[in-house]
TrEMBL record:
Residue ranges occupied by any Putative restriction endonuclease domain in the UniProt entry: 20-171
Biological classification of the source: Bacteria, Pseudomonadati, Pseudomonadota, Alphaproteobacteria, Hyphomicrobiales
One Pfam family of this chain: Uma2
InterPro entries (UniProt xref): Nuclease_put_TT1808, Restrct_endonuc-II-like, Uma2
Superkingdom, natural source: Bacteria
UniProt cross-references to Gene3D superfamilies, sorted A to Z: tt1808, chain A
Protein name: Putative restriction endonuclease domain-containing protein
Amino acid sequence: MRRRWSVAEIEAMVKAGVLAEDERFELIGGEVVPMSPKGLRHERIKVSLALYWVPRLPGDLAVAQETTFRLDPDTFLEPDFVFFRRADGLANLTAETALAAVEVSDSSLVYDLGRKARLYAAFGIREVVVIEADGLVAHLHRSPGPEGFREKVTIRPDEPLRLGFAPTLELRLRDLPLV
């Protein structure tokens, strides 16, 4: 027997200790979807991106790392990064206020480029980047719609990855100094 869960119910279970705070899953349309454990390469890329991006962020922007990104009452995702305007604040982070989401993909590439990208598009997230941990290839998605993203560009490690909302964050992934 299956049961649909709400974000509020999941949060209450975490608060009550029924679910561990560090359990890795996402809630999609009320369904709990387990996430793969993160590998060392994933973590090295994520930390290196944070070290690169945070000092280059324009003063009016902020980035949340591994936040529970609540998209509606029965859906939340756990992106590696979500960019937003400081004026909107983290407490008001929604699909409408998010500027971009970034996923570093180790063993979940098919999921991140498929179901997860379609979810981001359906909720209207303006820009989504999926970075392959092996090979440092980036997949940039823009122009969201109900059927998915209308613009998809593959960026090789030696090509510049440009985020439309903040040109100062441009980088070539091959030049990213991994920690």
